[in-house]
Amino acid sequence: MPRDASQATIKAAWRRLAREHHPDLATDSPAAAQAATRRMAEINRAYEQLRAEVQHATAVGGNGRRPSWPPREKPTRPVTGRVDTSATFRPRNTTMGPRVARSGPPPFRSDRLSREPLRASQPTGPLARRRQRNFRPPVPPTLDEALGHVVAFGKFHGHSLGEIAAFEPSYIDWLARTIARDPELVACARVVQADLDARSVPRPTRAASG
């Protein structure tokens, strides 16, 4: 078979050899059938290898023919230029400018502080709220208001703090210590908690959870 055979030529040769050496045709003896099986396996392996070579040549832009042998040498890569960067190396903790001998601590740079506008308070807000004009601290609820406050979640949903304090006072401690999303509820729970402490109402060491 020529080295530049096409896919059609290779397939036609494979079919001709398969008709001649197929194991089903060897019915004389088991030994002949086994020899025909080995021969057919070699034919199939050679056919797959030749077909893969032709497909590879077609994928790289060939004309569907097998590549010549021996293969051509691959083009060498161009030599890249070298850049000397040793002059840009600086030891650790050194300045970028020329070294100037000086004594004493480095000068304090206040340009950042001068550019930044002054703030009237700390970033987290004013620290002394009572000094603000027209500031009124929240007034805590009375004991009656706190006892009548109704809880809208948890196992005591729909019950007032007065009912909860009479049934499970440790739950009042849990509300005053844990809840943060409802400031009104927390304020009422703390008022009821203070009343329980004033009356020395016993509670377990570990408060109940909701």
The sequence of SSEs as H and E is HHHHHHH
How many helices?
7
Distance between the termini: 87 Å
Mind telling me the C-alpha Rg? 46 Å
Inertia-based shape: elongated
Largest sheet: none
**Average pLDDT rating:** 76
Strands, count: 0
Strand-residue proportion: under 5%
Protein structure class: mainly alpha
The poorly predicted ranges are none
Kindly describe this structure.
- The protein contains seven helices and no strands.
- The protein is mainly α and 210 residues long.
- α1 packs antiparallel against α2 and α6 crosses α7.
- The chain starts with 6 loop residues before the first helix and ends in a 12-residue tail after the last helix.
- The mean pLDDT is 76.
Short description:
Among the domains are: 7-59; 143-198, no CATH class. Helices cover 42% and strands 0% of the residues.
Features:
7 helices, mainly alpha, 0% strand
What's the layout of helices and strands?
Layout: H1 7-21, H2 30-59, H3 111-115, H4 143-148, H5 161-167, H6 170-178, H7 183-198
Helix pairs in contact: 1-2, 6-7
